[in-house]
Design goal:
By secondary structure, this protein is α+β, with helices and mostly antiparallel strands. Helices cover about 40% and strands about 20% of the residues. A hairpin with a 2-residue loop joins strand 1 and strand 2. The radius of gyration is 24 Å and the shape is globular.
């Protein structure tokens, strides 16, 4: 940055300032392991923390479509950040509530924001901060006006990350029984809204899709875990069901075990073999 920052254009200064907050928030999210949030996920969780249902102004605040917000909420639900439940007063509507994990994200974002706010307060006066906020509010008001008038130029195309999550789809003979089994494996399970033949089993960053489809052959997936021996102990305890085979050292430096669910779907799980390193 030049010796006199006032020489920089306003958009350049805004970009640098946004990066300061973003890096602080990102580091606090990484500290709690919340690195699988979808785009705008933290902002959506913040707004949902203020109300029990989607805010009508979410798309405008994010600068994206309602469809994009809906897709992000689907991802947040599948990854355990929000719970979706039927509205008791209107069965056609769904209420959204932050899970414990969702509240952890909101708290982490607050910590990341306050860390920069405190540094800012030590450098400039309260009046200067309020003036800055007034300017940002004015700019936020200008944005929709520019969009409505067609004065804004379209954002240039840029490369975005295509792959966000890879989820196996396991065929099952009884969806309710399968959901109970994966709940015993420590997953958060639920049926797809309005469906009796499709469901989800989520844990940490893992999301398994379960589909009622007796005519298909069982599926298979590989699970990279922190401690394969600990997972074997958890999944082989009485009452879990299925078949969990003991962990063994593999010639490629991995300690690996397997779990076969009651429908024959295979999950191989492994972690690095420290003795082989």
């Amino acid at each position: 940055m030049p010796s006199d920052p006032s020489d920089l254009a306003t958009p350049t200064l805004m970009r640098a300032a946004r990066g300061t907050y973003a890096r602080s928030i990102r580091s606090h999210l990484q500290a709690i392991g919340a690195e699988d949030l979808p785009r705008n996920g933290a902002f959506i969780l913040f707004r949902l923390n203020e109300a029990s249902e989607p805010r009508d102004d979410l798309p405008a605040g994010l600068g994206v479509s309602k469809q994009a917000v809906s897709q992000a909420i689907d991802i947040l639900a599948n990854r355990g950040y929000v719970d979706r439940n039927p509205d008791p007063s209107d069965r056609r509507r769904i209420t959204l509530e932050l899970t414990e994990r969702g509240h952890e994200v909101v708290a982490a974002v607050w910590r990341g924001t306050e860390a920069i706010d405190s540094q800012l307060a030590a450098r400039v006066s309260i009046e200067a901060v309020e003036a800055m906020r007034s300017g940002l509010i004015a700019l936020a008001d200008i944005k929709p006006e520019e969009t409505a008038s067609g004065a804004g130029l379209p954002r240039s195309s840029r490369r975005t990350r295509q792959f966000r999550q890879f989820s196996p789809i396991f065929p099952v003979r009884d969806l309710a029984a399968a959901l109970r089994h994966y709940a015993a494996l420590g997953c958060k399970t639920f049926a797809y809204e309005g469906s009796s033949d499709y469901g989800f089993a989520n844990r940490d960053r893992l999301s398994i899709h379960l589909t009622l489809d007796p005519g298909h052959e069982p599926g298979a997936a590989y699970l990279d875990v922190r401690d394969a021996d600990a997972l074997y102990q958890e999944w082989s305890r009485p009452g879990v069901g299925g078949l969990t085979r003991p962990v063994e050292p593999m010639p490629y430096g991995i300690r690996e075990g397997t779990h076969i669910d009651p429908d024959g779907n295979l999950i191989r799980f492994g972690s690095p073999d420290e003795e082989a390193e």
